[in-house]
């Protein structure tokens, strides 16, 4: 490889515990070239999500070619494929990318423009990098999966319980649900996370270590119209089934480790639905471009002051040691908001 065609990256050959020095490695890789509707983006900042740690988690598998993780980035378009219509060289962008392609833990990345948004102009690259995956997940969960109206008047008198409201997705979902006019109840367990959830728009905060219905009743609520589960679906399933209103909807983003008893929802004609933000990109669904549109909508809300970034911790530069630290923070399960790395 010539120096001009090389780029820095962080990847893995083996799936190891994060305290192992080979779990994430500094690499030199070939810089990719865009084709079709791909953009080549120079990555300025990245963020780490639970999906990164789950994909990296120890397993008996070895990669012949290094695998690059990372599904949150903000940067600048360097060049665009011949079929691109939405962006051009020099545009500042942010995106989560696709689970089926090399990730954002590299100096340059190819990403389909249909899942890329314009970076909020009022934010730094680090502040913007905290947002894409969690914003897409929160937006799709609320509006596409739960079917919540974007018109405030439609939601007056309706309520939503957000389980795990202090995390990355919860921090965005709480803000969006509040903007939509819902009564928002978030769960949190520590004083600092309770404060964070209130600061991000929750009207009430309850504990996820106690039955939900009793706590809701103490607030004068007999049920909730929607539940967005962002943590331990199995653990909370029975309590969510008790708290959901007749004909209500529960949406979760957290895979289960044992079957869910859907019979608990039958008498209420209640529904359960999954949200997986990589679905549209993975299957290249006809509505894939909606992720481009919703990221632009989020950028507008940010720039108008209606929504705020959830960046809570910043590390620099971007290299394997700092990325291992970020993975450890996320794996601890006590992370509030998002951790971001910037500058190569």
Automatic annotation (TrEMBL):
Domain Enoyl reductase (ER) residue range list: 22-341
Family matches, as CDD domains: AL_MDR
Coiled-coil parts of chain: none
Name of one Pfam family that matches: ADH_zinc_N_2
GO MF annotations, alphabetized: oxidoreductase activity; RNA binding; zinc ion binding
Matches recorded under InterPro entries: ADH-like_N, ADH_Zn_typ-1, ER, GroES-like_sf, NAD(P)-bd_dom_sf, Quin_OxRdtase/zeta-crystal_CS, Zinc-ADH_QOR/CCCR
Sorted UniProt keywords: Cytoplasm, Metal-binding, NADP, Oxidoreductase, RNA-binding, Zinc
Keyword match Cytoplasm: yes
Database matches in PROSITE patterns: QOR_ZETA_CRYSTAL
Cellular localisation: Cytoplasm
A cellular component annotation (GO) from this entry: cytoplasm
Principal subcellular localization: cytoplasm
NCBIfam families: adh_fam_1
Subunit annotation: Homotetramer.
Family designation: Belongs to the zinc-containing alcohol dehydrogenase family. Quinone oxidoreductase subfamily.
Name the UniProt record assigns to this protein: Zinc-type alcohol dehydrogenase-like protein
Organism, as annotated: Paenibacillus zeisoli
Organism lineage string: Bacteria, Bacillati, Bacillota, Bacilli, Bacillales
């Amino acid at each position: 490889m010539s120096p001009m065609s090389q780029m820095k990256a962080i990847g893995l050959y083996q799936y190891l515990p994060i305290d192992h020095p080979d779990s994430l490695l500094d690499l030199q890789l070939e810089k990719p070239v865009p084709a079709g509707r791909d953009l080549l983006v120079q990555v300025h900042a990245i963020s780490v999500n639970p999906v990164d740690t789950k994909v990296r988690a120890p397993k008996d598998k070895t990669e012949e070619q290094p695998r690059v993780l990372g599904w949150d980035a903000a940067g600048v378009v360097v060049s665009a494929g011949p079929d691109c219509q939405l962006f051009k060289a020099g545009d500042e962008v942010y995106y989560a990318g696709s689970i089926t392609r090399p990730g954002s833990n590299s100096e340059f990345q190819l990403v389909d423009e249909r899942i890329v948004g314009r970076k909020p102009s009022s934010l730094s690259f680090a502040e913007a990098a905290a947002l894409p995956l969690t914003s897409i997940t929160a937006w799709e969960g609320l509006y596409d999966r739960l079917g919540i109206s974007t018109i405030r008047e439609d939601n007056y008198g309706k309520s939503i319980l957000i389980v795990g409201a202090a995390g990355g997705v919860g921090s965005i979902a709480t803000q969006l649900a509040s903007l939509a006019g819902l009564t928002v109840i978030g769960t949190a367990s520590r004083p600092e996370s309770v404060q964070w959830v209130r600061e991000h728009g929750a009207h009430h905060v309850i504990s996820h270590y106690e039955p939900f219905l009793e706590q809701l009743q103490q607030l004068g609520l007999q049920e909730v119209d929607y539940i967005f589960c962002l943590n331990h679906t199995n653990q909370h399933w029975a309590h969510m089934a008790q708290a959901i209103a007749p004909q209500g909807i529960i949406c979760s983003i957290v895979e289960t480790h044992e079957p869910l008893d859907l019979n608990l929802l039958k008498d209420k004609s209640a529904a359960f639905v999954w949200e997986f933000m990589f679905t549209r990109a993975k299957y290249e669904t006809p509505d894939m471009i909606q992720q481009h549109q919703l990221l632009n909508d989020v950028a507008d809300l940010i720039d108008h002051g209606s929504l705020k970034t959830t960046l809570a911790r910043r590390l620099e530069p971007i290299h394997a040691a700092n990325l291992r630290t970020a993975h450890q923070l996320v794996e601890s399960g006590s992370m509030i908001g998002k951790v971001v790395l910037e500058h190569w």
